[in-house]
Amino acid sequence: SISTTFLYRDQSPSGNPDYFPAPGSVPSGQSGLLSCIGVSPLRANLDYFPAQGSVPFGSIPTTFRHRGQSPSGQSRLLSCTGVSPLRVNPDYFPAPGSVPFGPIPTTFLHRGQSPSGQSRLLSGTGVSPLRANPDYFPAQGSVPFGSIPTTFRHRGQSPSGQSRLLSCTGVSPLRVNPDYFPAPGSVPFGPIPTTFLHRGQSPSGQSRLLSGTGVSPLRANPDYFPAQGSVPFGSIPTTFRHRGQSPSGQSRLLSCTGVSPLRVNPDYFPAPGSVPFGPIPTTFLHRGQSPSGQSRLLSGTGVSPLRANPDYFPAQGSVPFGSIPTTFRHRGQSPSGQSRLLSCTGVSPLRVNPDYFPAPGSVPFGPIPTTFLHRGQSPSGQSRLLSGTGVSPLRANPDYFPAQGSVPFGSIPTTFRHRGQSPSGQSRLLSCTGVSPLRVNPDYFPAPGSVPFGPIPTTFLHRGQSPSGQSRLLSGTGVSPLRANPDYFPAQGSVPFGSIPTTFRHRGQSPSGQSRLLSCTGVSPLRVNPDYFPAPGSVPFGPIPTTFLHRGQSPSGQSRLLSGTGVSPLRANPDYFPAQGSVPFGSIPTTFRHRGQSPSGQSRLLSCTGVSPLRVNPDYFPAPGSVPFGPIPTTFLHRGQSPSGQSRLLSGTGVSPLRANPDYFPAQGSVPFGSIPTTFRHRGQSPSGQSRLLSCTGVSPLRVNPDYFPAPGSVPFGPIPTTFLHRGQSPSGQSRLLSGTGVSPLRANPDYFPAQGSVPFGSIPTTFRHRGQSPSGQSRLLSCTGVSPLRVNPDYFPAPGSVPFGPIPTTFLHRGQSPSGQSRLLSGTGVSPLRANPDYFPAQGSVPFGSIPTTFLHRDQSPSGNPDYFPAPWSVPFEQIPTTFLHRDQSPWGQSRLLSFTGISPFGSIPTTFRHRGQSPSGQSRLLSCTG
Question: Where are the domains of the chain?
Answer without folding.
Answer: 140-150+166-266, 269-287+301-332+339-354, 530-671, 730-932
